[in-house]
């Protein structure tokens, strides 16, 4: 998918996700009404699991083994393609998503309205890692296995996304923000990949043309 997605589609996706991320931040983090709705949604979801305050939960106990297993699965799929482009794209998507989520979380402020913890948690770093692995899994899978890869990615991503809210680690907006970062990172990597290929083709054409002219 990294190589087959059209550059203009990827560019459009990058712009849309960036605008969606900015709009989400302004709506659920930067306004009192948005924070209240986001916080109450978290409380509603956590109460359905019998949670009334932040807890370690199953995700806290098994987070590292789960991420390790997911990383090995994705690495195996990427390696099975035996393509340098797929491997490089996977590394760039993962690193861009993780670093991007960390930087955004550090730079963005959660305005104080007296609603829940004032410490910013937008976007969720935990979900960002899982979302990146999910995007890479789908993007790296061969066409005939892509549906299965999507189902695994969707199921795993959904479980983690629900658990971080149910355990009151994050609000729903934090989770959605992390997914937007991962999708946006994949789109940016695809655009960069296309630009690099185009530049290489142009340089190759110029070099070949000059050699031909010299021989003439």
What does this entry look like structurally?
- By secondary structure, this protein is mainly α.
- Helix content is about 80%, strand content about 0%.
- The protein has helices spanning about 5-30, 30-50, 55-80, 85-105, 125-140, 145-165, 170-215.
- The chain starts with 6 loop residues before the first helix and ends with a helix.
Key attributes of the depicted protein:
216 residues; mainly alpha
Radius of gyration: 20 Å
Q: Characterize the main sheet.
A: none
Distance between the termini: 42 Å
Low-confidence stretches: 211-216
Question: How is the quaternary structure best described?
Answer: single chain
Helix fraction?
over 70%
How much of the residues is beta strand, in percent? under 5%
State the helix count: 7
Please write the string of helix (H) and strand (E) elements. HHHHHHH
Q: Helix- and strand-based class?
A: mainly alpha
Quantity of strands, as a count: 0
Mean pLDDT: 89
What's the overall geometry?
globular
Write the layout of secondary structure elements.
Layout: H1 7-28, H2 32-48, H3 57-81, H4 84-107, H5 125-140, H6 146-166, H7 172-215
Task: Describe the structure in brief.
With 216 residues, the chain is mainly alpha-helical. It contains seven helices and no strands.
């Amino acid at each position: 998918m990294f190589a087959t997605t059209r550059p203009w589609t990827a560019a459009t996706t990058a712009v849309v996700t960036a605008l969606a991320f900015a709009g989400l931040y302004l709506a659920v983090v930067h306004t009192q009404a948005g924070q209240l709705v986001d916080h109450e949604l978290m409380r509603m979801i956590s109460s359905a699991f019998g949670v009334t305050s932040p807890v370690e939960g199953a995700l806290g106990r098994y987070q590292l083994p789960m991420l390790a297993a997911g990383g090995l699965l994705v690495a195996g799929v990427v390696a099975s393609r035996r393509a340098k482009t797929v491997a490089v794209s996977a590394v760039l998507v993962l690193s861009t998503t993780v670093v991007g989520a960390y930087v955004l979380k550090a730079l963005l402020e959660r305005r104080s309205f007296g609603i829940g913890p004032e410490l910013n948690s937008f976007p969720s770093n935990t979900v960002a890692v899982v979302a990146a692995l999910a995007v890479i899994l789908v993007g790296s899978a061969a066409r005939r296995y892509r549906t299965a890869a999507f189902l695994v990615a969707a199921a795993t991503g959904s479980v983690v996304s629900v658990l971080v809210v149910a355990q009151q680690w994050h609000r729903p907006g934090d989770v959605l923000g992390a997914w937007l970062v991962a999708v946006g990172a994949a789109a940016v990597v695809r655009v960069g990949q296309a630009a690099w290929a185009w530049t290489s083709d142009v340089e190759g054409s110029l070099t070949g043309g000059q050699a031909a002219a010299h021989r003439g």
